[in-house]
Design a protein that fits this description.
Blueprint: H1 2-27, H2 33-36, E1 40-43, E2 49-53, E3 60-61, H3 71-81, H4 93-106, H5 116-124, H6 131-147, H7 150-160, E4 167-168, H8 170-178, H9 187-195, H10 209-223, H11 243-247, E5 254-256, H12 261-275, E6 283-290, E7 296-301, H13 302-305, H14 328-338, E8 346-349, E9 368-371, H15 372-377, H16 381-391, H17 393-402, H18 428-439, H19 463-473, E10 474-475, E11 485-491, E12 497-503, E13 507-514, H20 526-539, H21 560-564, E14 567-570, E15 576-577, E16 583-588, E17 595-598, E18 601-602, E19 611-614, E20 620-627, E21 633-640
Parallel strand pairs: 1-5, 3-4, 15-21
Antiparallel strand pairs: 1-2, 6-7, 6-13, 8-9, 10-11, 11-12, 12-13, 14-16, 16-19, 17-18, 17-20, 20-21
Helix pairs in contact: 3-9, 5-6, 5-7, 9-10, 14-16, 14-19
Length: 641
């Protein structure tokens, strides 16, 4: 009975000890806050590093697992720091005893006898190097072994090991010292990264290269390696591409984007080169997206870090700006699918008032009768306003909003006809998304920068209408050899915004140039400033041209004699005018001086001009005549309400 009672006491004691250990483990779990406080690694669609952002406090620390590093680094680390790592429970009693004996003989600490697990515990909870700290490390090491696998413990060391200055972890060390990802390190590079954590500041290669080389060479000698690479003498800048767009992403240890790193780098170089040639305080934004998937492949803003006056800190692809004529293709598309007009419909580009609104073309001239396709390609204003009047400004705005692109109207303003000429705000990303709809099936889908962003296609244009507009816009870019690009420009009032948007069968490209503060850029036009840059961007892309549009019908081409013939532009024959003020009669062609007559009575005219002011006497029918110096005449009968 005595033996049984004794064994019972032993069992009870062991049970109590187990319960105590369990309670202590629950009461004092491993402190993992440093392991969770990481910087952000942004990668492109194939996993290449686009940008790195530091952890809070400015520390460059990124999650690194045993699978992320070169096998040679793991072999070197374990061979030098803890040969029995795979077999001990977190503590190696023989190593501790040997270290204690060495310390007693030397009279000071020579070796700590720490296993890699103990080092991981110290990295998780840094403490002064005292006996008490060592005991805590031992307890924590055993605890870590109970909670984590051996490879997980290696991951703790690889993530937190100090690499000099504010660098922590093998990933930060590999990139800052060698511009190499940890999985591609050479043996000599791995040896240096194993050496630095022993004395991070004393072995910094940029400050103490001789010391760093000596320790690295001893490690290489111990592992049978050879010094095949030089010691770095300077810390290299960490990757930081697409900086404005990346800064706006929600923080996470790793963000997978849709970017293509080589294209991103090329676009940033192009943006920086072009920004240097722009007028003072002018900036730009560039964007390339995959048209079928709506994935953003590259984007650049403000010359990639240009000065504050050029918006270097702003993501100008998200800035609301006036699109000028860049929205005209969608007015035509709605008119085409409603049956209001088609590409061959003849439209009038003549002076006309829409209530109090009297738009003019950019060059203040008029083309007379043109097809809808030609009017869109030439970006004529009067036909676009007339079609928007038929489509309805409210419906146009509502259609874009339903497609996920709500136009920003001026404060207190309602949807109105000036929308045809850019009287609202839109971003480059939104505009490119709409042009991607023209490039594909007519559905509108917001562009996405992260591969986890949902794809949300929304009905916008009928496929046939989208394809028709794409065909109309497909023409040769100026100064570019290959055809097959559909493109359109936009210029807002005062030259504040110069746009060019284009697409082939694969990519949609957007270009904006202007001043970030919205002040005018005199003389700036989409065709003059943005189109050449649009062509340069397409030169960076694999060619995938669209089919060229059919040749124009020859019977619509005016002969030189027709083009120079005298004709009355406004008002056209059978026009109905309001009796609310002077009417400007305008003519084209013929030889000056011109004479204007109303019911045979001449009007005062300037011999150098092709227009005259007429105030109707009242309601009724009138016959208008214009005569040129050769006696040619043109007539129009109109009614005044």
């Amino acid at each position: 009975m005595g033996g049984g009672w004794g064994r019972g006491r032993v069992f009870t004691s062991l049970l109590a000890l187990v319960l105590l250990v369990f309670a202590l483990d629950r009461a004092f779990p491993p402190e993992l806050s440093r392991l969770a406080t990481l910087g952000t690694e942004v990668v492109d669609r194939t996993g290449r590093i686009v940008a790195l952002l530091p952890a809070p406090g400015g520390v460059w620390r990124f999650r690194t697992t045993a699978d992320d590093v070169a096998p040679d680094l793991l072999d070197t680390l374990i061979g030098i720091e803890d040969r029995h790592f795979w077999h001990h429970p977190g503590v190696n009693p023989l190593s501790l005893a040997r270290a204690a004996l060495q310390d007693l003989r030397a009279g000071h600490i020579v070796s700590g006898g720490s296993t890699l697990t103990m080092q991981a515990a110290r990295l998780l909870e840094p403490r002064p190097r005292t006996l008490r700290s060592k005991l805590i490390e031992i307890a924590r090491a055993v605890q870590l072994e109970a909670h984590f696998s051996k490879r997980d413990i290696l991951g703790i060391w690889l993530t937190l090991a100090p690499m000099g200055g504010n660098l922590e972890g093998v990933r930060a060390g590999a990139l800052a010292w060698f511009a190499t990802p940890p999985g591609a390190l050479e043996p000599a590079q791995s040896a240096l990264l194993v050496a630095i954590p022993r004395r991070p500041e004393a072995l910094r290669p940029d400050r103490h290269p001789d010391r760093a080389r000596a320790v690295r060479d001893r490690i290489l000698a111990a592992t049978g390696g050879a010094a095949t690479t030089a010691i770095p003498f300077a810390r290299l800048p960490l990757p930081r591409h697409a900086r404005q767009a990346v800064a706006a992403l929600p923080p996470a240890p790793r963000i997978a984007t849709t970017l293509d790193l080589p294209l991103q780098i090329a676009l940033e170089r192009l943006a920086a080169d072009r920004t240097e040639t722009l007028p003072e305080r002018a900036s730009l934004a560039l964007l390339v997206a995959d048209a079928p998937s709506r994935d953003i492949r590259a984007l650049a803003s403000g010359g990639n870090g240009a000065g504050e006056g050029r918006g270097g800190a702003l993501d100008l692809t998200r800035a609301l700006r006036s699109p000028g004529s860049a929205m005209k293709p969608f007015i035509y598309a709605l008119a085409f699918q409603d049956g209001i007009a088609g590409p061959d419909t003849v439209l009038s580009d003549l002076p006309r008032r829409f209530g109090a609104y009297a738009p003019e073309n950019f060059d203040r001239g008029f083309a007379g009768s043109v097809t809808a396709a030609e009017a869109l390609r030439r970006s004529l204003n009067l036909p676009a306003v007339a079609l928007l009047d038929r489509v309805g400004p409210l419906r146009f705005v509502a259609t874009l909003k339903a497609a996920g692109v709500p136009l920003r109207l001026p404060d207190g303003a309602d949807a109105s006809l000036p929308l045809a000429l850019g009287g609202a705000g839109i971003t480059l990303r939104q505009a490119a998304a709409l042009y991607a709809a023209l490039a594909t099936d007519g559905n509108a889908t917001p562009l996405r920068l992260r591969d986890t962003d949902p794809v949300d296609p929304r009905p916008f244009l009928q496929p046939r209408a989208a394809a028709t507009i794409a065909g109309v816009l497909t023409q040769r870019l100026p100064d570019r050899g290959s055809p097959g690009i559909a493109w359109k420009t936009g210029t807002s009032w005062g030259g504040r915004d110069a746009w060019a948007l284009g697409f082939d069968r694969t990519h949609v490209v957007g270009v904006w140039i202007g001043r970030p503060d919205g002040t005018p850029l005199p003389g700036a036009t989409g065709r003059g400033l943005a189109v050449p840059l649009l062509a340069r961007v397409f030169d960076l892309l694999p060619p995938n041209p669209r089919d060229p549009p059919p040749p124009p019908r020859l019977e619509r081409q005016p002969t030189p004699q027709q083009a120079d013939a005298l004709r009355l532009l406004f008002p056209p024959s059978q026009a109905v005018l309001s009796n609310d003020g002077p009417v400007t009669l305008r003519a084209m062609g013929g030889h000056r001086p011109l004479s204007f007559l109303v019911d045979g009575a001449p009007l005062p005219t300037d011999p150098a001009r092709r227009e005259a002011a007429w105030t109707p006497n009242g309601p009724g029918f009138y016959r208008l005549t214009v005569l040129d110096a050769d006696g040619a005449a043109a007539h129009a009968g109109v009614r005044v309400k």
